[in-house]
Design goal:
Rossmann fold, 2 domains, 14 helices, 42% helix, globular
Length: 360
Amino acid sequence: MTGRSGWIRFLFSYPWDANVAAHSEGRLPSHRLFGYAELAQAEPGTDFIRCPRPLRGFFTRRPRVWMAYSDIRTLAGHQSVVIAAQENVALLLLLLRRLHLTRKRLIVVNVALLKPGNRSGVKRLVWRFLLGGADVVLSYARGQVLCLETSFGLARARQRVVPLGVDTAFFPVLPRGAETGLVVAAGSHPGRDYATLVRALLRLDAVNALILCDVNNILPVRAQFPELPGRIRLSEANLSFDDLRARYAEASVAVLPLHDVAYSVGQTILGEMMSCGLAIVASNVMPIADYVEDRKTCLLVEPGDDAGMAAAIHKLLVDRDLAKQLGTKAAQRARETFDVTVPGRAHREIASALAGERRR
């Protein structure tokens, strides 16, 4: 505690007013606010940059302008601790901290720092310099700590690992009705490997699948598989979270196919699937290694292994006792380890420590 109101500011990569309003109305799970909801509840006055309604369309289409605007507004504010929900939103603040032109304490969440383009050439040198302006860099996976140290020289003492939590109240364990035999995958992140999932599904006769994603994922899959059978549906529908829960409820097996990358990918959807108690098949990649355990909370397959993915899906469709066991353990782990209250407490503790250091 700092003894003053409104000492933390959250920065988002685009106007967040509608998301915060949707959460307050019960239409958005709190983990989709990346810790803001829990901090705002624990520390009244925690705020974010609100966007004037007439300018929301302008800023949404121009995220870089929005991020610069957010940083400038933050510099003029009284908040002593700033949490950037993604590294790109803090560029100006990082630069000014590096040049000792602001004393605001800065927590930066590592989301895409470890994308290949940031880890080589000029971008690597720029990030290596800028990250020196962060008091703490948070990552969602332990394996990313060594990657940040190796790529950018970021000392481990200035890093923290905080899991991306899941709103287990919003995603309760789903009652299992009649077996549908439906395989469901979801997510629009570029780290998704839907091509491997489609190849796996083509190996399985008469298995129905629903892949909920965006046009950026659909187009390359359709280009590679121009004549998919009707039992494999690709949907770019913009679902509400109530509808997403309904799709999860229809699933006999949930699949999380991922590319072998170091940057954050898959944790959000994985947490939701685990919280719902689904039987999950997932790619065995570093960003989700802390969240699951093979044959205890899910079945893991090597990235790009369509034969292994097909075998795992088939196993869970056939062995429903195993599917139930994995789903039960996954839901239990989500509640014990990754409920939103866990990262919420961690964010508050880190911010409080930084605020205390500034006062000394």
